[in-house]
Amino acid sequence: MADEDQAKKQFSKLVAKTWTDESFKQRFLENPNAVLMENGISPPSGIEIRVVEDTPQYRYLVLPPRPAKQEMSDEDLEGVAGGMSTSEASVLALPCTICW
């Protein structure tokens, strides 16, 4: 849990820097894996990270990977319906907010 909290803090600092440093933001949009690593966040090996920027006119929703071909328990389904991923895929979990 401490590692997750630390990653959230590091990511929050990274996002704040994109708001004040246009060249940093462009680098993050163009090469997110490198910028994450430079800021102490290690993306999972073999995973390509893509960054898109929300605007007042556009909001992006991310579809999680399809679960392995196995039946999901009621508990798993409830977790997914609540917005939590139960996928066993190695995914970098970053904080997310939805503003409509």
User: N-to-C SSE series?
Assistant: HHHH
Low-confidence stretches: 84-95
Largest sheet: none
The N- to C-terminal Cα distance equals 29 Å
What is the rounded Rg?
Answer: 15 Å
| Residue-averaged pLDDT | 80
Shape category: extended
| Secondary structure tally, helices | 4
What is the number of beta strands? 0
Helix- and strand-based class? Answer: mainly alpha
Q: What oligomeric state best describes the polypeptide chains here? A: single chain
**Into which percent range does the helicity of residues fall?**
40-55%
How large is the share of residues in beta strands? Answer: under 5%
Give a brief description.
The protein has 100 residues and is mainly alpha-helical.
What does this protein structure show overall?
The protein has 100 residues and is mainly α. It has a domain at 2-58. Helices cover 43% and strands 0% of the residues. It has helices spanning 2-20, 22-30, 32-38, 74-81. Helix 2 packs across helix 3 (32-38). The longest helix is centred in the N-terminal third of the chain and has 19 residues, at 2-20.
Draw up the topology in text.
Layout: H1 2-20, H2 22-30, H3 32-38, H4 74-81
Helix pairs in contact: 1-2, 2-3
Features of this protein?
100 residues; mainly alpha; 4 helices; 43% helix; 0% strand
